[in-house]
Amino acid sequence: MILKNPLGIEVIIQDRAEIMAKKPNDFEEILRCKKKTKRECPFCKIKEEASRIVYEGSLYIVKNKYPFIEESYVFVHKNHYDGFEREGFAKEFGEGVGFAKKLAKEKGKFPLIFKNHGFFAGASLEHAHEQAILINPEDKPKYHKMMEFIEEELKSPRAINEFSFCPRASLEPYECWVVVEEKWERISKVFKLLKKALGEFDYNLILHTGEFPNIAQIIPRKQPPSGIELALARFTNPFPPEKVASHLREFLD
């Protein structure tokens, strides 16, 4: 079955979890280990780079030292530990989002806010951080009937609770969307469910903003894109989201 998400990205959904679980993997031990390089953390001493700091509150916001585009910023948490399950982490993230939105408005830009956690998600540093890039409004993502999509998903078997769900066109197994609004702790609640289901995992988080409430898209990443995904320019997902949502609901309090 080929489906599209609100951004028009195509996904092939097949119920093949049992088959994929039996697939041999010569690199499983390497994937489980993921050794880290021991070196001094540049974000632990970010306060020494005063010229880069544009905001200080419960976290620092600094100019990106290695920007992909010019208007690029990093949210650097004062606590090295990286995880939405940490007390206060989601609130710190929300504070950073508020500043990025304000800065974007002042500059006539649109904020793209995201987080890469772990090797398979494209992260290069372990220290808790997120990123915001400010782009021209005409270049912002084109959303298709976002609120209609949200309302439909929250009423479907893919709903986890009253504010989160596994979307019909999930890009990866256990992808979750969270209708945050300004209730940042909702992200932490969903992360706790995912951690109970998956253990430690790499992930990308994208915060969708616009003419709708803040919506967090959490995409667990267990491996890099496969050849078939690159060849077809489509994601492949062997775990139907209805089954994933049912699994995550088992961990609700």
Describe the secondary structure blueprint for this structure.
Blueprint: E1 2-4, E2 10-13, H1 17-21, H2 28-33, E3 53-56, E4 59-63, E5 72-77, H3 89-107, E6 110-117, E7 129-135, H4 146-154, E8 159-161, E9 164-165, E10 176-179, H5 185-198, E11 202-210, E12 212-221, H6 227-232, E13 235-237, H7 241-249
Parallel strand pairs: 2-13
Antiparallel strand pairs: 1-2, 3-4, 4-5, 5-7, 6-7, 6-11, 8-9, 9-10, 10-12, 11-12
Description:
A hairpin with a 5-residue loop joins strand 1 and strand 2 (10-13). It is built from seven helices and 13 strands. It is an alpha+beta fold and 253 residues long. The chain has a ten-stranded antiparallel β-sheet with strand order 3-4-5-7-6-11-12-10-9-8, with helices on both faces. A three-stranded mixed β-sheet has the order 1-2-13. It has one domain (2-22, 41-249): 2-Layer Sandwich (HIT family, subunit A), CATH 3.30.428.70. It has helices spanning 17-21, 28-33, 89-107, 146-154, 185-198, 227-232, 241-249; strands at residues 2-4, 10-13, 53-56, 59-63, 72-77, 110-117, 129-135, 159-161, 164-165, 176-179, 202-210, 212-221, 235-237.
